[in-house]
Amino acid sequence: MSVKRDEGLIVCENLVRIYRTEGVEVQALQGLDLAVARGEMVAVIGASGSGKSTLLGILSGQDVPTAGSAEVAGHDLLTMKRRDRLAYRRGTVGFVWQQTSRNLLPYLTAAENVMLPMTYAGVKRSQRRARAAELLDLMGIGHCADRGPGELSGGEQQRVAIAVANANRPLVLFADEPTGQLDSDTGRAIMHLLRAVVHSEGVTALVATHDPQLMELADRVLDLKDGRITTGE
Ligand code: ADP
Ligand code: MG
Predict the structure, then answer these.
(1) Measured in angstroms, how far is the CA atom of residue 51 from the centroid of ligand 2?
(2) Are 150 and 142 in contact (CB under 8 A)?
(3) Measured by CB atoms within 10 angstroms of the end CB, which terminus of the chain is less buried, N or C?
(4) Mean pLDDT score of the chain, rounded to an integer?
(5) Which residue has the higher pLDDT, 126 or 232?
(6) Is any ligand 1 atom within 6 A of the Cβ of residue 53?
């Protein structure tokens, strides 16, 4: 499927990200064009170093591109001010990292982890509880609500992480190799759950992955090579 640029929830044109460290330049993104429609689940594939994490970092507001344009739901990611960027990261997007330990605070229970982003957003306590219970049930781990991350398997931790990322009803969900630390059966289950969340929450998702069997669940596969998309656009 090809998405018209003026219909895209996510639109990048000629996006460039150059890293400069100790006089050495790395062109992580070299003029990338991309358009993703609302409600799409897109898999981003490509060899290690092809720019997947750089792209997700920019679109989620954690990193700023060097040149080109990148817009998500009308937010201009090049010119966005600091305060708007923080609100964007907390409210407009959700993020799931590969490292299970990076997604959750170790001293909070699963339910408390899911409620935390809602606390920042000023959601009332009763609503936070209800939303956390709803999301943990959706992820099939309602019974783990009062356990800490240390009492959960890697797959259970990633389920909680997906619940955390969706707590504030984001428009876009980003996941950077979310199954990279899991065995293949657990990874497949997590990808099916991501798919289910995209449907039930109406969220748009960009998932970086290496796993060919997981790509089948996506609506579209974008293949990154040297910081550009080679197929799928
Ligand atoms: P992928 O996620 O596909 O493995 P990355 O986006 O992490 O790719 O990296 C793309 C390129 O940018 C690689 O050459 C990588 O070494 C480089 N790179 C990524 N992050 C940094 C950084 N913070 N500083 C310097 N170079 C970086
Ligand atoms: Mg990466």
Answers:
(1) 7
(2) no
(3) N
(4) 92
(5) 126
(6) yes
- For the segment 39-68, the average pLDDT, to the nearest whole number, is 95
When the candidates are 3.10.180.10, 3.40.50.300, 3.30.70.270, 2.30.30.100, the CATH number that belongs to 40-68+76-232 is 3.40.50.300
Nearest ligand to the CA atom of 48: 1
- List the chain domain ranges: 40-68+76-232
Ligand 1 within 6 A of CB of 228: no
Average pLDDT over residues 178-188: 91
Backbone angles phi, psi at 117, to 5 degrees: -60, -30
Within 8 A by CB and 6+ apart from 171, the residues are 9, 38, 72, 73, 92, 93, 203, 204
Q: What is the pLDDT of residue 111?
A: 98
- Which among 19, 55, 209, 210 is the best mutation to test ligand 1's pocket, defined by most ligand atoms within 8 Å of the CB? 19
Q: Report pLDDT digits (tens) over 141-182.
A: 999 999 999 999 999 999 999 999 999 999 999 999 999 999
